[in-house]
């Protein structure tokens, strides 16, 4: 959906060697423990957030290895956890509502001060939201990709 990120790169190692290098590994990102689970068709990287007291938006990453000629293509697909999806979606809908309200008021010839105030509020809220997502969720996604690349 909106927060799903897919990365692809090729590796010269075999699929079995790749899976053996990553399966069962534990690592930490921002003082949060992640574990690589070996499933039948792919690897899954999931956070251990059972003891987490603060609210964080965390990714679950699927690592799939596809045979492409002599090399293997690794596909990393990071998506937001289902339990975390509601908050960011609500903020995005709120920003869209404010933006559409300002657009309607602009087209209908409403009060310019209120029109620009709604537009500015929507852009401000969206900017703050996106910066927080870049420093949180997307930072986890980047570091998960870096972990997979460095350990293979």
Protein model, in words:
With 152 residues, the chain is α+β, with helices and mostly antiparallel strands. The protein has a domain at 5-83. The chain has helices spanning 15-22, 86-108, 112-135, 137-150; strands at residues 5-11, 26-29, 32-38, 43-47, 59-68, 71-80. The protein is built from 4 helices and 6 strands. It is elongated, with a radius of gyration of 20 Å. The mean pLDDT is 88. Strands 1-6-5-4-3-2 form a 6-stranded antiparallel sheet, with helices on one face. Helix 2 runs antiparallel to helix 3 (112-135) and helix 3 packs parallel to helix 4. A hairpin with a 4-residue loop joins strand 3 and strand 4 (43-47).
Question: What is the structure about, briefly put?
Answer:
The chain has 152 residues and is of the alpha+beta class.
């Amino acid at each position: 959906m909106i927060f799903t990120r897919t990365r692809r790169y090729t590796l010269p190692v075999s699929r079995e060697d790749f899976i053996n290098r990553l399966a069962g590994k534990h690592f930490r990102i921002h003082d949060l423990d992640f574990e690589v689970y070996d499933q039948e068709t792919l690897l899954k990287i999931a956070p251990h957030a059972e003891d987490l007291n603060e609210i964080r938006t965390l990714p679950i990453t699927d690592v799939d290895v596809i045979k492409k000629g002599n090399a293997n293509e690794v596909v990393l697909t990071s998506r937001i956890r289902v339990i975390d999806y509601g908050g960011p979606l609500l903020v995005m809908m709120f920003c869209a509502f404010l933006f559409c309200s300002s657009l309607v008021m602009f087209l209908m010839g409403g009060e310019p001060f209120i029109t620009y105030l709604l537009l500015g509020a929507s852009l401000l809220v969206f900017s703050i939201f996106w910066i927080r997502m870049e420093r949180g969720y997307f930072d986890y996604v980047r570091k998960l990709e870096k972990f997979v690349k460095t350990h293979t």
